[in-house]
Write the C-alpha cells for this entry.
Amino acid sequence: MIEENVKRLLGEVGENPFGEKVTLVAAVKTQTVEDINCAIAAGITDIGDNHVQEFRDKYDGIAGNPRRHFIGHLQLNKVKYLIGKTDLYQSVDRFELAEELSKRSERAGVTSRCLIQINIGNEESKGGFEYEEGLEACRKIAAMPALKVKGLMAMLPFTDDEDVLRPLAKKMRALFERLRDGHEGAEYLSMGMSGDWKLCVECGSNMVRLGTSIFGPRKYD
C-alpha cells in the first residue's frame, strides 16, 4: 500500500501553476522505521518528524539518506538534539526558538536552514507569527548568525470549506512572493497536508507534508 501511495502521489504533485516543482515531504509521526524505509525505497526523498524523541529513536534506522525536516512544535530544550542532523526546520514560530537555533548552530559550526511559520488563520490553537508581522519576522531572523531563512510554512484551518481555505492559501502565496522579492534565499512555501494539499498546490504551494495519504490512518498505542 505504501509503495503504491508514494508512486501515485509523486505522479500527482508535479508542479504548481507557477511552474515550480512541488516537494513531497513524508510526515512520519508514529510510523515504524520499516514503513518509513518502504516509503523511501518507493521514491520519497524528504521526511518530516514532529517529535524530537521519535527523531532520535529512529534516526540510525532510516535508510537511503533522505533530507530530514522537523515539522512540529519545537521546545527550546530539545533543539540541541537536532543540530547538524536536520536539513530544514519548518516550524520556526517564535523569536526565542530562532535565537536558540542560531546559538546552537553557531556553537556547532553549522548553518541551519529554516522556514518561518505563519499563523494564517489566526488560530489560538496554532503557533506562528501573525500574517502582518511575517516579513519583519523573516528579516530579523535572517539577520541572526548561522541561520538561513528559506521560505514560509503554514497550516490552514481544519475545514473542508474551500471558500475559507482558498483565500488563505492565496494570501500565503502573496506573502511568499513579497518575501522572495526582498530575500534572495527564499525557495519554499510549505503548505498543504493530506486533507488540503491539492488546493494548496493550486494556490502556489511548492512543498507539501503528507502522512495519512502515504501511510494510511495513524496508529496510536
